[in-house]
Amino acid sequence: MTGVWGERLSAVLGARTAASLAQLDLHTVQDLLRHYPRRYGTPGEFTDISSLRLGDHVTVMAQVRTATVRHMHSRGGAMLEAVVTDGADTLQLTFFAKRAGVLRRHEDRLRAGRVGLFTGTVGEYRGRRQLTHPDYLIVGVDTTDEQEAVLEASRPIPLYPASASVPTWRIGQAVRTVLDPLTAADVPDPLPAHVREREGFPPLLEALRGVHVPGSVEEAERAQARLRYEEAFVVQAALARRRAAREGLTAVARPARAGGLRDALDARLPFPLTDGQVAAGEEIGADLARAVPMMRLLQGDVGAGKTVVALRAMLQVVDAGGQAALLAPTEVLAAQHLESLRALLGPLGQGGMLTGAADATRVTLLTGSQGAVARRQALAEAASGAAGIVVGTHALLGEQVQFADLGLVVVDEQHRFGVEQRDALRARGERPPHTLVMTATPIPRTVAMTVFGDLETTVLAERPVGRASIATHVVPAGNAAWVERVWTRVREEVAAGRRAYVVCPRIDANQVEEGAEGETGLTSVVDLAARLQARADFAGVGIGVMHGRLSPQDKDQVMARFADGRTPVLVSTTVIEVGVDVPQATVMVVMDADRFGMSPLHQLRGRVGRGTEASVCLLVTGAEEGSLAWERVTAVASTTDGFELAERDVELRREGDVLGVAQSGGRGSLRLLRAVRDADLIAMARGDADAVVAEDPALTDHPELAEAIEEALGEREGFLEKS
Q1: Residue 365 domain boundaries
Q2: Is the pLDDT of residue 142 over 70?
Q3: Which residues have a Cβ under 8 Å from the Cβ of 392 and sit 6 or more positions away?
């Protein structure tokens, strides 16, 4: 990005201000102007001081009641104590200095009756909440002239996502410095003018002024609506281009063959296919029969039977003379898939063996940790076509891996792979293979429309018959009797010949797992395993340990010992979150459950209840009742419907967590768009974007839109594939 829009903040605001803003990952004019206010304060509407929690970094709007400077005889120096109020509760502000004169400036500004924004970390002294040396801005006073002061005191006050070192009003001042001199020519607008006019949206510069310096709340809301629509439009235009590009490609049609391996599998399955599995198979089968590359998302709740659906698709391709590759995110999961497929296929998967059926194929495993001999054999079977199905990890993406005729790529747990990795497989051969993306993380329809808009979506909503029920209970960590009952229940299940998972958020006391960095007091795998081994009631009970530092061989060994019952209790990190299938496992204990998101908790719960025995999931949490963390955990306990949880998750989480910052980590992340709330707007943007791309596929007449797509999707396209 060139011009003023892409100019470095150091050149506009100076090195010192730019350095402080860089801590918020704001580096250019565009970065700063896309850093939208989180909310708006209205003069006269004060913060509820009673809701402040110790240790929180807060920005409080309140009225000054008193401010007094006094000498400290016991320790020397001077102290200013001010009291601010929301009309009901009070908060103390404390400033220290060596001399009283230094504090007179604060005393003069903090006059009784004035309203200010005060930012700092909530502490406590003698039972009173306080902010020590808070940064602050006095409304209507900290302005350049009287006219500006009157205006400032009457309009909404933007409150930005800020940090301890960069308070919200400093961000606002920087925004004004950058924004005020801009002209429309300085701000490239990705929304085509005819789309803007038809939908009644203002130009981008006007929207930026409306969101950063609104004259009223209504003006801010109008500006936000335009910016939300823009986010949806840019993503949908990118997806429209991907769909158009795919329609222009030619794949090898792989129609179903009567009497082939797929029919033979159906005949030998020990259970009937659900109606959902049959319908999914028909949708996927029809796509495979076309000469256009299939791009389909198969999403199903935990235990919905996606593996069988995928296997039937792979066999349709094998029946048509092609090969299928199943890409799994971990070696543990790849090995699990290999065993599952071989068990389902039986003689149908034993091609070239004495025990194989007449027209059997072969299922081959290819991973990075294989020995040289096994790897050479797997490579040869893939290249010759002897293996109709090749299961593997990212090792399948290596240049040396060749296929005789790759017709279908199945990507399991899509969110673990970036677009580059997926496209590396799709690019194999003269014509791209069909692609089936599977996820066990249910996605609301509205999120799927936003995130997977270039994929056709198939949903498996039912669970196969015969699966056990799972009861989920929240266990407050502070209730010693309840926690003790957790371990008694684990011991009872083990005594009955069953298995138990115990999941912790970190490996040991020295290293935290992802998402828990900086936390103290969290349960670790190493410590908890030792504590369980030391319990008298666990004497003689084998306890396994599983985490990401183990080698692939060690992981396989640990899982084998757990599955066969030699170590019926497995203490683990979330490496067992996905795909691990041990039907004898009937207990899932999650320690510090509030440290995990709703989707991971649901995935972990899905590791039990895979057999016929009733199962239980126990969520141990120290979260306070009424907190957001408590809401998340209790929501998981309230339902086993993953799609219902996914909708709830989107509503509870901030949009950055769902569609941006936490997943793409880039400046191009979605900021204002919320998939559930903005479903209608997303649909509108999709229609508009489709029309623009249909008329101008290369976006030659819309360079601003093309640049916005390139800029945003340089980072966000990975997120489109991973979310």
Answers
A1: 261-460
A2: no
A3: 325, 326, 327, 328, 334, 365, 366, 367
